Amino acid sequence: MNATVILALLILIGFGVPIATSLALAAIYGIDQFTRLPMILVAQRMFAGIDSFPLMAIPLFIFAGNLMAAGGISARLVEFARALVGQVQGGLAASCVVTCMIFAAVSGSSVATTFAIGAILIPAMVKNGYPKPKAAAIQATSAELGVLIPPSIPLILYGVATDTSIGQLFIAGFGPGLLVAFALTTFLLIYCRVYNIGNEASEPRIPLGPAALKASAALVMPVIVVGGIYGGVFTPTEASAVAVAYALLVGTVIYRELTLPAFIRVLRETAIATAVVMLIIAAAALFSFVITRMGLPAMATGWVRATFTDAFTFLLAVNLFLFVVGMFIETAAAILVLAPILAPMAVAFGVDPVHFGLIMVINLATGMITPPVGVNLFAACTVAKLPIERIIPPLLPLFAVMIACVFLVTYIPAISIGLRDLLY
């Protein structure tokens, strides 16, 4: 009967039914066919799934990211990144990675990063000799840093789903995030020189000092948020409210670019994004309850222990499994459904739960640039006005870099938990 519920979910997803609706319908089918539970349980479990104080951080970080984008932060971060690495061949591509890394520490969302930064840098790269599909592929891949560099919405979801410290997950996210940023930047600088892509040398040099001064308000925000968390000043959830207050201050008082119409638009976009995420969380909570009631996690744990004998082979299988899952299922839903099942198995094999959280997130982040459900691909194609099939060939080398980073994070725990162990 477990297989029937899972099969129902896969069929619904295959027919293009939205992921939240698919999860809810599959759960309702399982309750109706294989349990004697009353249907009022559907509403109760969905409400219980979002009745969590740490989840308050999600809409607030989304709000803060949207405010920063509307308040002129994106353009200043791009100018700062170009001043750092933008005057050499491949510099604009490297600037895209650096800007996304910084903006990720503001928004916590890869899709928001794609739209906010891509709207500026994709046209700039095309103007400087980059093929448009290549520019879009660079933007889509760089935006993955939005789910690794804290504050990260997927890391918050993993912490809630597995009862793992969100503060420890945030500090552990810096290592993988910096690794991906360094790997992508190095690869792009070499690739652009070898294939003679980009003519940034013809662009006027941007002085680093003035660019840093203009972007200073944006650069200080991650220090306030993350430093406040690890300094014990406020919790990750309270930090999200501080981020909103700071974003409002920057946009209205310092840069004075956050107008009333823009603020109203930000409120609307935040409400829509929050509703989408929360509906997925509620439906995933219901689905997780149903499959747990039916004994699927216990069965899966028994099978894993009988099949895999050590952590190396288990993590290899998890990587392959999550890669396939990430191609078809949205990141939030995948974490909420799978993390409560997989995390206890990983702990049984001696894997630190914080380390495993980063393994899950970086794997599912890679799924954001793989069709058919690669949200970053669709966002970048929307900005570049390209059909998705044109972005795939130039994406493949960048995808290979991401896969290498996934295996480094998986099998070198110090990348994730080394900094955590120094601080805790």
Spell out the key features of this protein.
78% helix
How would you describe what is shown here?
This protein has 424 residues and is an all-alpha fold. The chain has one domain (2-423). It is built from 21 helices and no strands. The chain has helices at 2-14, 19-34, 40-50, 57-70, 73-85, 91-107, 110-127, 132-142, 153-162, 166-194, 208-214, 216-230, 236-254, 260-293, 296-307, 311-328, 331-348, 353-367, 375-384, 392-411, 414-423. Helix 16 runs parallel beside helix 18. The longest helix has 34 residues, at 260-293. The protein is globular.
Portion in strands: under 5%
**Can you tell me the number of structural domains?**
1
Structural class: mainly alpha
Computed CA radius of gyration, to the nearest angstrom: 21 Å
**What is the share of helical residues?**
over 70%
Give the SSE string.
HHHHHHHHHHHHHHHHHHHHH
Layout of strands and helices, then pairs:
Elements: H1 2-14, H2 19-34, H3 40-50, H4 57-70, H5 73-85, H6 91-107, H7 110-127, H8 132-142, H9 153-162, H10 166-194, H11 208-214, H12 216-230, H13 236-254, H14 260-293, H15 296-307, H16 311-328, H17 331-348, H18 353-367, H19 375-384, H20 392-411, H21 414-423
Helix pairs in contact: 1-2, 2-14, 3-14, 4-13, 4-14, 5-6, 5-11, 6-7, 6-8, 6-10, 6-12, 7-8, 7-19, 8-19, 8-20, 9-10, 9-17, 9-18, 10-18, 10-20, 10-21, 12-13, 14-17, 15-17, 16-17, 16-18, 16-20, 17-18, 18-20
